[in-house]
Amino acid sequence: MMNETLLAEDVTEFVPMADHYKTSRTSDGFISIAAATDDHCRGIADVVGRSEIMEDPCFNSLFARSANVAALLQGSEGAFEHLTTADALAALKAKDVPCAQCLLPAEVVDNDQVNAVGALGQQVHPILGALRTAMPPVQFGSEQGNIDLPSPAHGQHSSEIAAELGYNNSDVVTMMKAGTLAGA
Length: 184
What we know:
The chain has 8 helices and 7 strands; from the N terminus they run E-E-H-H-H-H-E-H-H-E-E-E-E-H-H. A hairpin with a 2-residue loop joins strand 1 and strand 2 (29-33). The protein is elongated. The chain starts with 22 loop residues before the first strand and ends in a 6-residue tail after the last helix. The chain has 3 domains: 16-102, formyl-coa transferase, domain 3, CATH 3.30.1540; 106-144, no CATH class; 152-184, no CATH class. The chain has helices at 38-47, 62-67, 69-76, 85-94, 105-109, 112-116, 158-164, 169-178, and strands at 23-26, 29-33, 99-101, 120-125, 129-134, 139-140, 143-144. It has 184 residues and is an alpha+beta fold.
């Protein structure tokens, strides 16, 4: 939505910020970097031994980097492969660059931060049994958002929805037999 928000005729369009946020391979995994400022980019350039890039007019400001994001990303390909994930994160954090390790799904479950913020919950599904769910990220005061019910099975509420739309029981049975309405 970045280029769809400001509606004036004289607005400069930029490459979407999502294009700036890519994962980077390390010698033993991947990291994600969220460099939003010139200082963040200077920090990255220092860590990968490319401090001179911040003197290049194509990359020395947010506007310049946005206009040249493809070249910037291509030029930074493989920049962290000589470092372990732990070393890359330590070096970036020392330069105050927002970054994190990219986790495999199995690693997410045991991640300290995921557990500290209660990002995962559990519930019992009537068909699938016990399952893990992602909790809503919204908190109001000390109240954590919650998912009270599991996702319905395909067609589980078809009869109720059809009734709300004015169909009678006979119509629902006919539509289910014809295959135009799914039933649970």
